[in-house]
Design a protein that fits this description.
Number of helices: 3
Number of domains: 2
Oligomer: single chain
Helix content: under 10%
Distance between the termini: 34 Å
Largest sheet: 10 strands, parallel
CATH topology of the largest domain: Pectate Lyase C-like
Structural class: mainly beta
Radius of gyration: 23 Å
CATH superfamily of the largest domain: Single-stranded right-handed beta-helix, Pectin lyase-like
Strand order of the largest sheet: 19-20-23-26-29-32-35-38-41-44
């Protein structure tokens, strides 16, 4: 997707770029040799190590801004060479930069003509060929630099008050992907959002609200199967409130039923990248600004390819509701290894590293409902590999309903093997690669959805082995709407559970009003 200055429902998003569709003229370049190459997906690659190279996009009138990108340093030519992101770039020689240096530092620098001047640095391990996520925030006179979701450097400087966002290499080669520019800081940072999106976390005061742990799901998470009658989470256990990362990690590791009320946006350690949740847990955010950043949640046992049927100790009966997920260093939520009866509801997920919500390796009886997924490329995966049929066939039974899939280019979801995968009454908006992709003999029932400006809304021929899909009673609207590419028959979800459909013509209004945090 070409770089786009956003003027959408989210005024806080200034620009997004994933390079999957090549590169447009909106990026101004100086030095180096820039091109889009394939590295899993499209990435912007600067191959020369013989110059000081920059690529900039956006407006020189942008003031407060947060510039984030994934960066893979490839090679360095000489000592104290670096690659990273730019903020408030007034020209090709005037900007703030945050870079990974081959001296083993994360460097925050200012350049106003001449050479960049380091104003803050932190020791880090920089390994070529490794992907990192950098985030440079410039709000007022405050500058902050993040590596993989953790703030490592900061400074105060008034030299530059506005400018474009950008990427740079200084006598180095590197690849870049998933650029995101916003006009709001990370939670706890300086500055005040001028037009915060609904559901965005606020820095202070702590969120107020209730912690409802009584709700129950519809769809597959409500089915009586595998020894579990529906999904009740922590029902029957105590209710506690946590407002630190340490308290949350201790709570999700506790054995036995427990209701966990999360207050505030908590920064989890990035090692491990995902933190294990045990069975019989309800995790609910308080208000519209509570959740986690810096790490993700793992619901499932460690990967074991030799296990081909649900083990007795498979993680089960987990509810996650009203939670914000930001800046995960791997998946935001990962459900794996025959985990079952999981409900993810009314949450806000964006700006992760890999998947926002992946379900794989034999997991089943899951409902994903009323969530807002936005501003992230690899959204939701169902079934991780074309060759994993031994664990997945007959499982991966998942319901997706009333979700808002907002500027999420692909995996909405991308499904393998599961049947039936029930996708109903969701609002798809500007999914530039594909909406629902059904492959590897998955059976997808896609009904009553609203596809808005989606060129390839439903397909069973996306990549790899084909799947089966049935598309019925969907709306295809907006700019250049596509039509479904479907064939084959699919099991009826109604054979497993009862449900009622909203009129698809009303789905856009219903979902945008009701999906996400602060709506329960």
């Amino acid at each position: 997707m070409a770089a786009t200055a956003m003027a959408s429902a989210y005024a806080a998003v200034l620009l997004t770029e994933n390079f999957d569709d090549g590169i447009g003229t909106s990026w101004n370049r100086s030095g180096g040799s820039w091109s889009v190459i394939t590295d899993g997906s499209g990435v912007y690659h600067q191959s020369s190590t013989g110059s000081d190279a920059k690529a900039q996009a956006g407006s020189t009138n942008w003031t407060d801004q947060s510039v984030q990108a994934r960066i893979k340093p490839i090679a360095f030519n000489g000592t104290d060479r670096s690659a990273g992101v730019l903020a408030r770039a007034q020209s090709m020689t005037s900007y703030y930069q945050l870079g990974l240096s081959n001296t083993g530092q994360l460097q925050l620098s200012r350049r106003v003509g001449g050479s960049p001047q380091v104003i803050a640095a932190s020791t880090v391990n920089v390994v070529t060929g490794t992907w990192y996520t950098l985030r440079l925030e410039a709000f007022g006179t405050s500058l902050r630099g993040f590596l993989n979701g953790t703030e490592l450097v900061s400074a105060t400087d008034a030299s530059l008050g506005s400018g474009r966002a950008g990427l740079f290499t200084r006598y180095a080669s590197a690849s870049f992907d998933d650029v995101l520019v916003e006009d709001i800081p990370s939670s706890g940072g300086p500055g005040t959002p001028t037009a915060p999106p609904s559901g965005s976390p606020t820095a202070s005061p702590p969120p107020t609200g209730t912690c409802d742990t009584s709700a129950r799901p519809t769809g597959f998470a409500a089915v009586n199967a595998w020894g579990q009658n529906g999904t009740t989470g922590g029902a029957g256990g105590p209710t506690i409130e946590v407002d630190t990362a340490a308290e949350l990690l201790a709570a999700i590791a506790t054995q036995g039923p427990l209701n966990i009320c999360v207050r505030g946006l908590l920064t989890l350690p990035s090692t491990p990248q995902m933190h294990d949740v045990t069975s019989d847990k309800t995790i609910v955010g308080v208000g519209a600004g509570s959740g986690i950043t810096g790490g993700g949640l793992n619901i499932g046992l460690p990967v074991d390819n030799g296990v081909t049927s649900p083990p007795a100790d498979a993680v089960h009966n987990v509810i996650i509701r009203n939670m914000v997920f930001r800046g995960a260093t791997d998946d935001s939520i990962n459900i794996q290894m025959f985990s079952h009866h999981v409900w993810v509801d009314h949450s806000d997920l964006s700006q992760g590293y890999d998947g926002l919500l992946d379900i794989k390796r034999g997991s089943s009886y899951v409902t994903v409902s009323w969530n807002h997924f936005h501003d992230h490329t690899k959204n939701m995966l169902l079934g991780h590999d074309d060759g994993n049929g031994a664990q997945d066939i007959g499982r991966l039974k998942v319901t997706y309903h009333h979700n808002w899939l907002d500027n999420t280019p692909q995996r909405n979801p991308r499904a393998r093997f599961g049947e039936p995968v029930h996708i109903y009454n969701n609002y798809f908006y500007r999914n530039t690669d594909a909406g629902v992709a059904c492959q590897a003999d998955a059976g997808c029932m896609v009904e009553g959805n609203y596809f808005d400006s989606v060129e390839e809304p439903i397909t069973n021929r996306y990549a790899g082995p084909t799947g089966r899909c049935v598309a019925r009673d969907n709306v295809y609207a907006g700019n250049e709407p596509g039509q479904p590419v479907c064939s084959g028959s699919v099991q009826e979800p109604g054979d497993y559970y009862g449900y009622s459909l909203d009129d698809p013509a009303d789905v856009m209004a219903i979902v945008t009003a009701g999906a996400g945090v602060g709506k329960i």
